Amino acid sequence: MTQKPENNAAQPVLEVNQLSLKVGQQDLLKAVSFQIQPSEIFALVGESGSGKSLTSLAIMRLLPDAIRVTQGNIQLNQSDLFSLPESKMQRIRGQQVAMIFQEPMTSLNPVMTVGEQVAEVLRLHLGLNQKTARAQVIALFDEVGIPSASERYDWYPHQLSGGQKQRVMIAMALACEPDLLIADEPTTALDVTIQAQVLQLLKKIRADRGLSILFITHDMGVVYEMADRVAVMQQGQIVEQAEKETFFANPKHPYTQKLLNDAIPKRIFKEQTSAEKLLNIQDLTVYFPIKKGLFQRTVGFVKAVDGVCLSIPKGKTLALVGESGSGKSTIGQAILKLIDTTSGEVNYFNDAEPIDLAKLSERQMKPLRKKIQVIFQDPFSALNPRMTVGEIIREGMTSLQVGPQDKASQNTRIQSLLEQVGLLAEHMQRYPHEFSGGQRQRIGIARALAVEPELIICDEPTSALDVSVRAQVLSLLEDLQQTYQMSYLFITHDLSIIPAIAHEVAVMQAGKIVEQGPVEAIMKNPQHPYTQALLNSAPSLIRQVI
């Protein structure tokens, strides 16, 4: 249970009153209203494009020049923010309201130490000298749980893990002791264990400092864990607002009901039936050399994959789970022969005859590339922005000589593939930037299907997607597997989707498989302490289901 605000009769910290925004003639926000009380965590939820982040930028007075306020106002501690000159607003940012973002790496200056970046805030807003600011930053780093705080002060962002970078951002936001913290999707890019730590930290800070938090997210598990009250946004409007318990027990609006239905995983454990092997990995190792000194001598190795054994049956899905850096994606790259393996076997059963992919040259591997395809985590960076959708899908068919090779017949097949993944035939003439994230992921799936693969490596294909889009993509992958009897290696750190997508699961830690077996056995009765820790780190709403 999250702590309830002690004094509901107090003046609200933040009041958003009938806020409406436009760009040109297009409405972006329409009469948005809500309040945040002292010490309250208020969750603003909805899909991408619903207006959540736009609302936060309006509160910070950081809207682009093209966007204009057509109605309403925002009161922070009874002060009308829209009536203030920019000079005064600059003092309010940091001192009264601060913000942390989804991706800490892009929010931190890569050429400044993390300590200096936080100290800069203290010197600018509070006028502290170098020595006092340094001591204050180290105290903040201790408060947010950064280990060896005085040493980490002099580290650069790239030397910290994702969770530690997010803690630096939280320390920076807290530096001037604001009354309101805006957290814009602060855990979306984090592993489940790191997410649990960051959420616990924010709740502790709220309790210690009496801080109010506007928590922007599309993750209902996080909302259940964190919020006192919840508001749901759809197409620039708030369609429902309620106390957390009421919100989850009795959602009123159809859109809210759909969001909750898509967010809470279906507890469907797939039957584990015997099947022929399609891929068998034996004692796979991938070591990366550590080079130091003037002559770049090898002084050690990073054991990214360390003696892994895996088997993927025909027509089945193996989920590979673990935290960032555990070696999951490296295994996928080794199967695709995008990196060199140090030792071991990657046996692909082509017409029942095993072929060790690890020993093939690039020329020998090329005919098998049509058999093994990949779907990436970020569909935007995986699609060439200068090519139309039709050209992107056609490229593999032409280079690997799959299907008809005359353009008219290829166009017919491309249109059929687009319709198969839930897009329109005419979309083949458009470019990737003209589509939403979920549509781009469907294009990536169509591209993989174009060469008629037997195995698709799905590398975190849903982690960047909203819950409703995620549900659609998972359903599509399930339908395609039933239709074509394809196999999937499904790489993920999202435990909630495993029961609905996988037949078997393998848990990876520090380059090794620590536990493997049928999904139901692993999820209901995990044996290894690391698997238990992963499951225990999932939000309680998700744990109730899995």
Automatic annotation (TrEMBL):
What Gene Ontology biological process does one annotation of this record name? peptide transport
Kindly give the InterPro entries that the UniProt entry links to this protein.
Answer: AAA+_ATPase (IPR003593), ABC_Ni/Peptide_Import (IPR050388), ABC_transporter-like_ATP-bd (IPR003439), ABC_transporter-like_CS (IPR017871), Oligopep_ABC_C (IPR013563), P-loop_NTPase (IPR027417)
The keyword Iron-sulfur appears for this protein: no
Q: Which Gene3D superfamilies match?
A: P-loop containing nucleotide triphosphate hydrolases
Q: Which UniProt keywords apply?
A: ATP-binding, Cell inner membrane, Cell membrane, Membrane, Nucleotide-binding, Translocase, Transport
Q: Membrane topology for this entry?
A: Peripheral membrane protein
Where is it localised?
A: Cell inner membrane
Q: Which residues form the ABC transporter domain?
A: 14-260, 279-535
A Pfam family per the record: ABC_tran
CDD domains for this protein: ABC_NikE_OppD_transporters
| Annotated family | Belongs to the ABC transporter superfamily.
Q: What is this protein called?
A: ABC transporter ATP-binding protein
